[in-house]
Amino acid sequence: MNKVVSGAAEAIRGVESGMTLMLGGFGLCGIPENCIAALVNANVNDLTCISNNAGVDDFGLGLLLQKRQIKKMISSYVGENDEFERQMLSGELEVDLIPQGSLAARCRAGGSGIPAFYTPAGYGTEVAEGKEVRYFNGKPHLLEHALTADFAIVKAWKGDPYGNLVYKGTARNFNPLMAMAGKITIAEVEELVAPGELDPNTIHTPGIFVQRIFQGPQYEKRIEQRTTRQRES
Amino acid sequence: MNKVVSGAAEAIRGVESGMTLMLGGFGLCGIPENCIAALVNANVNDLTCISNNAGVDDFGLGLLLQKRQIKKMISSYVGENDEFERQMLSGELEVDLIPQGSLAARCRAGGSGIPAFYTPAGYGTEVAEGKEVRYFNGKPHLLEHALTADFAIVKAWKGDPYGNLVYKGTARNFNPLMAMAGKITIAEVEELVAPGELDPNTIHTPGIFVQRIFQGPQYEKRIEQRTTRQRES
Amino acid sequence: MLDKIGIAKRIAQELQDGWYVNLGIGIPTLIANYVPPEINVEFQSENGILGMGPFPYAGEEDADLINAGKQTITSLPGASIFDSDTSFAMIRGQHIQLTVLGAMEVSDRGDIANWKIPGRMVKGMGGAMDLVASADNIIVAMMHTNKRGQSKLLKQCNLPLTGVRCVKRVVTNLAVLDIGPGGFHLRERAPGVSVEDIQAATEGRLIIEGDIPEIRTA
Amino acid sequence: MLDKIGIAKRIAQELQDGWYVNLGIGIPTLIANYVPPEINVEFQSENGILGMGPFPYAGEEDADLINAGKQTITSLPGASIFDSDTSFAMIRGQHIQLTVLGAMEVSDRGDIANWKIPGRMVKGMGGAMDLVASADNIIVAMMHTNKRGQSKLLKQCNLPLTGVRCVKRVVTNLAVLDIGPGGFHLRERAPGVSVEDIQAATEGRLIIEGDIPEIRTA
What we know:
The complex is a heterotetramer, with 2 copies of chain A and 2 copies of chain C. Chain A starts with 7 loop residues before the first helix and ends in an 18-residue tail after the last strand. In chain A, helix 2 (33-41) links the parallel strand 1 (20-23) and strand 2. Chain A is an alpha/beta fold. In chain A, strands 1, 2, 3, 4, 8, 9, 10 and 11 form an 8-stranded mixed beta sheet that branches. In chain A, strands 5-7-6 form a 3-stranded antiparallel beta sheet. Chain A has helices spanning 8-11, 33-41, 62-66, 82-89, 100-112, 175-181, and strands at residues 20-23, 47-50, 70-75, 94-97, 116-119, 133-136, 139-145, 149-159, 165-166, 182-192, 212-215. Chain A is globular, with a radius of gyration of 18 Å. Chain C is of the alpha/beta class. Chain C has a domain at 4-27 and 84-207: Glutaconate Coenzyme A-transferase, CATH 3.40.1080. Chain C has helices at residues 4-12, 27-30, 84-92, 128-134, 195-201; strands at residues 20-23, 42-45, 49-52, 75-81, 98-101, 105-107, 112-113, 138-141, 153-154, 169-171, 175-180, 183-189, 206-207. Chain C has a 10-stranded mixed beta sheet with strand order 4-3-2-1-5-8-10-11-12-13, sandwiched between helices. A 3-stranded mixed beta sheet of chain C has the order 7-6-9, with no helix packed on it. The interface between B and D is large, with 58 and 55 residues.
């Protein structure tokens, strides 16, 4: 099993205009920076992007928005991005907002062969429009369907040629769920290690879910809200 | 957060006759040996036990079967146990057999606030009797409901006073899923370590799912099928 | 009248030893600073961490360790990290004992609106709909009235809902109110605030029974 | 006629480089011994491991490392361990390229029965129902007839079903057959076995088109 590709450009081969992509990350934390850069350079547009957030104006998915490569965003929260707002208000960009927990569960379901499930989130709100309501234990729930993608693009801390992945800190977030739900899943990692170097007990994403992997040459890892405290002297 | 109790006897306090228990393990691998021993010594019966298997005659859940403490087993596979067979054929023991993947998913759903989901497993078989059938992408699926338990009893390799757990090898199996689904979850561990000793990145079961924890004084870890190969000389 | 810190301090009194708590952005975040010293609670952030600690010292920020507000944080001993689906499994599965969030409107039957203002940029609900649909124990922390002086405690929410019949308690700059049969049950009033002041600032049905003690936050 | 090892060797020829494979108990287990040396495949065991290696040397058994047959195993470099739900996520989510399992009966439309004999002790379906309901590519490895000489390739299964319309190919001691429009399509015959022998041992609809080559397992 050797799933290693030369870099982001080779990794995204086959991504075509009109396709649906999943991209891991929460805010700018744990986003696949190198693949996003490669997509910006690739001649693809009309993309549907499933991602919890939409980046900021000049980083993350904001870069694809700037180049008008995204037709539709499926997200839970899309603040922090002026260009996004402009495109949405002008009608250039479709936006489907989904409760964060439902988004996560729908990605995992998509990778798990579970076509649909019931959740209480969103009952009695706009989110419920057109959705089946069903009571369990006297409580109303909505039927939510699985999400899948032509390509899932995730970012991990360490990976091996088998595609096994380990994430670091809260950069894990949606990455392991989306890794399960891609017809083709691309993983970019900070460090590509030899087979056997990762302890089988501590692997977060088993390699079976990953088709292509590479070590990103560098990571900016931009911080959105740098908050600190004073050292007591 | 200090969830440490003195031992198995204190851990199972509150388990009453007629209750539903989940017990982790696959075969005899990863079973909560010390809690099972404590249940054998406790005056509780008419238990409904949700466990992938039912142990062997003289180990694991077989010990509870010997003492007729179990009214009903919910499992996917119950071979390897003569007393089980005798009680089942005589009608003393109710048995509900569930496809293994559905059992796992139903436990996880129970702990996740997902009351029901659709799965293809079992369509067109006895398992489908009385269940809603629904087509997704042209393929038939069954509606399966979440499982929960009054007590979930799991076994981990290491744990800390917060209830954080790490499993070893295939002794993981159903343990993390059941840990999520207990109204009260008891974890017995081979090694109880100080808070902060477990790397937050490598914890399999976050402590929030665990209410009581203790270090088992010893583990027999019986092997069901000891298979080996010859050393080439 | 309470300020935001006063509201946070009052809600901090609700905390019980051993609780897992999810704090929303804004006033709720402040509550972490006022946990009574004799109890232990753990804070969950829905982006995937339990056991959040204070902000890091300058120079020690880790881009891979943030909270749901995208702020750099630290973790405490006993912390654990998990994916977003496991995080919402904790939330939907009612493993969290207390959820505190802000709101734009709350109705007297416990509906809450806090994610969308028609005609304005919609940022999304994030995890709010999952939280309010699932949590057993939801406290709303907010100002009693909006910037135009209009009540935020209403007969019916005007804004698009985040969840229905879910809020259990509201703590504002003026009062502590429980949502129960018949509407908002006034429990406590802020120092220097009269029952009449609260009545005047509350559009929803307000139930006043017996003496209404003053909030103590000392 | 093939023996069990011959059946395993023939199925091993189906393996392709990079495939993830789930092998059932019995004949399927033997397939792992005959993987062509030029390809890499990884074996999944539904109790929670990918990258299963051979049995351990005596004295090196680890009670915490077993396969779905509860046998002690080893893991190979690149292995990963996961819980039972993630394991079946792989199976239901069709991340496994080949599933091989034994059967008591197979029907000519692809139904399979392999878990229950009425009147006998029922041990349970384990993971078999999840596997057959989900896998794209299911091969059944079995003897063509049962111990009483009765065909196991039937018009209709008599035993309680494990799954419907799911088996793609059957490899027996007598033949290789694909399940397609109209029934069992005979593809190959075992050495020394005639098409007539196969016809006689097959109760289900058998379709014979063109020359039927002999199975090669060398």
